[in-house]
Design a protein that fits this description.
Blueprint: E1 16-18, E2 40-42, E3 45-47, E4 49-53, E5 59-63, E6 68-75, E7 81-83, H1 91-95, E8 106-108, E9 114-115, E10 119-122, E11 125-128, E12 137-138, E13 152-156, E14 160-167, E15 178-186, E16 191-200, E17 204-205, E18 209-211, E19 213-214, E20 228-231, E21 233-237, E22 250-251, E23 263-264, H2 265-268, H3 274-279, E24 283-288, E25 291-292, E26 295-296, E27 303-306, E28 312-318, E29 322-326, E30 349-354, H4 359-364, E31 376-377, E32 383-393
Antiparallel strand pairs: 1-2, 2-3, 4-5, 5-6, 6-7, 8-18, 9-12, 10-11, 13-14, 14-15, 15-16, 16-32, 17-31, 19-30, 20-23, 20-27, 21-22, 21-24, 24-29, 25-26, 27-28, 28-32, 29-30
Family: Belongs to the aldose epimerase family.
Protein name: Aldose 1-epimerase
Organism: Segatella maculosa OT 289
């Protein structure tokens, strides 16, 4: 999904007091990050860089600012380390929502994606949410949503970290005090495994996801449309010009939305197709074949991305019914990002596992086909969402 360009205000530099550590002699991560560049105090809470790794050359760096993935390093076909996600190399840029707004790598909540007209109905009452996207609510309110909150580090090992967050009743208009966790684990098979969990004391909506932007080519200074994509979905949900689903569920067959066979993204980029024209690329929800009879199969590949340049294959697994796929349509802002690189438009692909966009509205309206995407969570219930990114090296693209 697109960056929140021009929509994020307020958290920023005024509340940030940076540590006075000497960074000249700090040991860099494999991805070239300086951990001290992430040491800060924001609104009285400490931020830091967490490094996870395994014995097979995989390294994942995260910060508790927004529960964000900052870098993912995996070996390429020449066994050379490649950083495959976009981001910044310092906390200042992540926190500066005016000059460098982004959702890079964030743990999104309480509701990922859009809610039409910024309102929901819970327990028979209408709640008005913070509008931050053309009158609609996007990613839980944007700069005051979870992607710009400081997560507590509940537990940490060499290969795993648990972020926790308590969101207050009324936060950005949402009902209920929510206690949420996001557990990131680097596994021995080069999988970054992510588990989101939450509880509430009032009926509310929950829809968490990770928002990492992938470029597997090893050179994020160039467009990434030569990457080969696969999406295990027969149907998708068309959207209007404001990215709100129309309520229809359409077949991908015979359209540029059909990625049931691995295909270079460029080969499907047909701007005569209104859905691609409206979004200037892909920014849509696919209805995953891996979700059936009310249950998601998180052992079967939901989507994949492959780089013929590096041989790196990314496979995506989830128990969620939908996958929002975004192809960096609003990148290319000229902002210097990680290691000073200026990312061009269409440089990356984001896989957001989640409930269908605007599910709160569609569920209340009893829109046909949206019943499998119920985002409402009641007291006593537990929210559980699983997302996994598995990396390997292949000679050719596979599922």
């Amino acid at each position: 999904m697109r960056n929140l360009k021009g929509l994020l205000f307020g958290v920023g530099m005024a509340s940030m007091l940076f540590s006075a550590c000497d960074t000249k002699h700090a040991q860099l991560t494999v991805s070239g990050l300086n951990p001290t560049a992430f040491d800060s105090i924001i609104n009285g809470k400490k931020t830091e860089l967490i490094t996870l790794s395994n014995q097979n050359g995989m390294e994942v760096c995260l910060t508790n600012y927004g529960g964000r993935v900052v870098s993912i390093v995996v070996p390429d076909k020449n066994n050379q380390p490649a950083d495959v996600v976009l981001g910044y190399d310092n906390l200042a840029q992540y926190a500066d929502t005016i000059n460098s707004p982004s959702d890079y790598g964030s743990t999104v909540g309480r509701y990922a994606n859009r809610i039409k007209d910024s309102k929901i109905n819970a327990s028979g009452k209408e709640y008005h949410l913070r509008a931050n996207d053309n009158g609609n609510s996007l990613h839980g309110g944007g700069n005051t949503g979870w992607m710009h909150q400081i997560y507590a580090i509940k537990a940490k090992t060499d290969s795993s970290v648990v972020f926790s967050l308590t969101a207050s009743d009324g936060e950005n208009g949402f009902p209920g005090t929510v206690k949420a966790t996001a557990t990131y684990t680097v596994k021995s098979d080069n999988t970054l495994d992510i588990v989101f969990e939450a509880t509430t004391d009032k009926e509310t909506v929950i829809n968490m996801t990770n928002h990492s932007y992938f470029n597997l080519n090893g050179d994020p200074s160039k467009e990434g449309f030569d990457q080969v994509m696969y999406i295990n979905a027969d149907k998708f949900t068309p959207s209007d010009k404001l990215y709100i689903p129309t309520g229809e569920i359409k077949n991908v067959a015979g359209t540029p939305m059909d990625f049931r066979k691995p295909t270079a993204i460029a080969d499907k980029y047909d701007t005569s197709f209104n859905q691609i024209k409206n979004a200037t690329g892909f920014d849509h929800n696919w209805c995953l074949n891996t979700y059936k009879n009310g249950k998601g199969d998180d052992k079967t590949v939901a989507a994949s991305l492959y780089s013929p340049r590096t041989g790196i294959l990314l496979e995506v697994f989830t128990n969620e019914p939908g996958l929002q796929v975004y192809t960096g349509n609003f990148q290319g802002t000229g902002i210097a990002c990680k290691h000073g690189i200026k990312y061009p438009k269409h440089v990356s692909v984001c896989f957001e596992s989640q409930k269908y966009p605007d599910s709160p509205t569609k569920i209340v309206a009893k829109t046909k086909g949206w019943d499998i995407s119920n985002p409402y969570l009641k007291p006593g219930e537990k929210y559980y969402s699983h997302l996994a990114y598995k990396f390997s090296v292949q000679e050719t693209s596979t599922k």
